[in-house]
Amino acid sequence: SRYNITVTAGGLSDTVLAVTTLKAPSAAPNVSKTFATSYSITINWELVPCEHQNGDIAGYTVRYGEMGNNMTDTTVLNITGASVTEATISNLTLSTNYTIQVAAVNRAGTGVFSNA
User: Fold this and answer.
1) pTM for this one?
2) Could you tell me if 105 and 58 are in contact, meaning their C-beta atoms sit under 8 angstroms apart?
3) Cα Rg for the chain, rounded, in angstroms?
4) What is the pLDDT of residue 110?
5) Side-chain half-sphere exposure of 61, counting CA atoms within 13 A
6) Element (H, E) at 59
7) What residues contact residue 23 under an 8 Å CB cut-off, 6+ apart?
8) pLDDT digit string, tens, across residues 8-49
9) Where does residue 41 rank: exposed (0-12), middle (13-18), buried (19+ CB within 10 A)?
10) 83 DSSP assignment
11) Gap between the Cα atoms of 45 and 87, Å rounded
12) Which stretches within 1-116 are classed as H helix?
């Protein structure tokens, strides 16, 4: 982002250009399970701490896949809204273990995913 900043002091003014670099969130949300059935799970997460948001959070990306596939074959849910901290994953296969990860998203992109 580019900003023109004008400083006036003692009747004199000067304008400088300030440039900031956008960065994706640098920390992952802390995720926990809140409710599970045979075919679905509801997860929730804490907001990424302010010092790691690197801008306004626009939403979250939730990805999940069968455990042991190194997250190469995943399903992705895009959650819009900075204050949304819960998602339900449905249509899961009975007796299958899943890896579920969550990352915050800002204007610069997707941040760090939570540990499996």
Assistant:
1) 0.80
2) yes
3) 20
4) 96
5) 16
6) strand 59-66
7) 54, 55, 108
8) 888 888 888 877 788 999 999 999 988 889 899 999 999 999
9) middle
10) T
11) 9
12) 50-53
Question: φ and ψ at 44, to 5 degrees?
Answer: -135, 165
35 CB contacts (<8 Å, ≥6 apart)?
41, 42
d(CA 25, CA 109) in angstroms, rounded, equals: 8
Task: Select from 110, 12, 24 the least CA-distant residue to 63.
Answer: 110
**pLDDT tens sequence across 51-93:** 999 999 999 999 999 888 777 778 999 999 989 999 999 999 9
Q: Specify the pairing of strand 75-80 against strand 109-110.
A: unpaired
Distance CA 57, CA 8 (A): 33
Residues 6 or more apart from 8 whose CB is under 8 A from it? none
Q: What number of residues does the chain have?
A: 116
The closest alpha carbon to 3, from 22, 23, 19, 27, belongs to 19
